[in-house]
Write a structure and sequence with these properties.
mainly beta; Jelly Rolls; 26 strands; five-stranded mixed beta sheet; 3 domains
């Protein structure tokens, strides 16, 4: 195995967000305006009108849903110190890393500084990467109101600042089987004509030595990584082979992995990019795929799902290896939606779909049918069941606890297309957390 670096280490001039950064109510709406300056500041805000979003409550003991979110983008290791002294309610304070709300990894958190002081304080060392801070109300009273957020950053290491030499397609770095390479994303860029779907990208080229399956993976990513694999000869005329974001849900949903069926002698272009304005370092590996079949979308992604604002209906998803021996490298997903027809009658909308290696990172389109005609109990006869095409459902997994459902009915009278946010109904048992 070869281990080498694709960049140099040098000093960096920090480009900071405004000192008066404002928190945002929803994790997914964190922007530059809510990114903390890498220095020292005091911010005031009001969580009175803050609301919980799907997956937020229970993400840690310090998340109760009346929160304001802030982002941190670091260029070097820092000691981060913060408190809510001066706030007008019983606060909590938490620091996370991760990509999606329900998969955040808690790095530090605090409720009360002391029995007599209901403000909160944290102190934690942050490496290169993207992190999130949440100010919330204490669980015992779900408090909200005016808060004061005091914080400071103390540099503890050397910044990584030189753009990777493989920033552009034409200068893609060679990647061989067994390589482990280091990548730093903060000053990587997109070039003209580059395919969409990522930011702060770096390129690698891989010529398959044999016809077999190979796996490319980011390891210990400090940013929300995404991997694309292409064939082609120019950056503006590439053909996508596979792509995947957030396959590995350990450690806050940051690492990604792509497995391709490679042909000997074919050159593949591997692009490692960041999602949104996240940044940091990662290791990139290329190895033969020892296991046959796709190990990403499995039974972990099954279960029952609902939207608490739509009590009375629910989704059942079952994922298993495909029963057809000719499709051993694929999985079968069965979807069933208990809901109501336009006349108020209970109904199941259901359908199976075969899924492949890119399925977690993409929408799964499922042709859905309605079944009618049979009778209950002893009067049931299979030949009486009538199948009617209802339309399509598209599932997009955000992680193994959260997904979005886009529906498009084609039957008359069922109305227009729409979207529903879903979360897992029951927490997974001890030892059965997201993979």
């Amino acid at each position: 195995m070869r281990i080498y670096s694709t960049l140099l280490i040098a000093a960096l001039t920090i480009v900071a967000a405004p000192a008066n950064a404002q928190g945002t109510d929803r994790f997914g709406q964190v922007t530059a305006a809510s990114t903390l300056q890498l220095g020292q500041a005091t911010i005031t805000g009001d969580t009175t009108n803050a609301t919980a979003q799907l997956g937020e409550i229970g993400v840690s003991p310090f998340a109760t849903g009346k929160s304001h979110w802030f982002r941190i983008n670091t260029d070097r290791p820092y000691r981060f110190t913060a408190n809510t002294a001066g706030s007008q309610f019983d606060t909590t304070l938490a620091v996370y890393r991760g990509a999606n709300l329900s998969e955040l990894a808690l790095l530090a958190g605090n409720d009360d500084r002391s029995q007599s002081d209901l403000s909160s304080a944290v102190e934690v060392t942050l490496g290169h990467g993207t992190f999130y801070v949440a100010i919330d109300g204490a669980r015992n009273n779900s408090g909200s109101g005016n808060y004061t957020f005091n914080y400071s950053f103390t540099p503890t290491g050397i910044p990584l600042a030189i753009a990777p030499p493989n920033d552009n397609f034409a200068s893609a770095a060679a990647l061989a089987v067994g390589d482990v390479v280091f990548l730093n994303s903060p000053v990587a860029t997109l070039e003209n004509g580059e395919p969409a779907g990522a930011a702060r990208t770096a390129w690698y080229r891989f010529t398959a030595p044999a016809t077999q399956r190979y796996t490319v993976r980011t390891v210990n990513a400090a940013f929300d990584s995404i991997i694309h694999v292409y064939t082609g000869t120019a950056v503006n005329s590439l053909t996508l082979v596979e792509s995947l974001d957030d396959l590995d849900f350990l450690n806050g949903n940051l690492d990604s992995e792509v497995t391709i069926n490679a042909t000997a002698g074919t050159t593949y272009w591997v692009r490692i990019g960041t999602v949104s304005d996240t940044r940091g370092t990662t290791m990139v590996t290329l190895v033969p795929a020892k296991a046959q079949g796709y190990l990403g979308l499995d039974a972990t992604f099954g279960g029952t799902w609902w939207n608490p604002n739509r009590a009375g209906e629910g989704i059942l998803i079952e994922v298993a290896k495909h029963p057809d021996p000719d499709l051993i490298d694929r999985s079968l997903l069965f979807f069933a939606w208990f809901t109501y027809d336009p006349n108020g009658n209970p109904v199941y909308l259901s359908g199976p779909v075969t899924v492949t290696a890119s399925s977690v990172g993409q929408q799964l389109e499922i042709p859905v049918t309605i079944t009618r005609g049979a009778r209950f109990g002893a009067a049931f006869r299979s030949q009486d069941v009538a199948f009617t095409n209802w339309g399509t459902v598209r599932l997009r997994y955000l992680n193994c606890n959260e997904l979005t459902l886009n529906y498009a009915p084609s039957l008359p009278g069922w109305g227009n297309a729409g979207t529903i946010d879903l979360t897992r109904t029951f927490n997974r048992g001890v030892g059965a957390s997201c993979p």
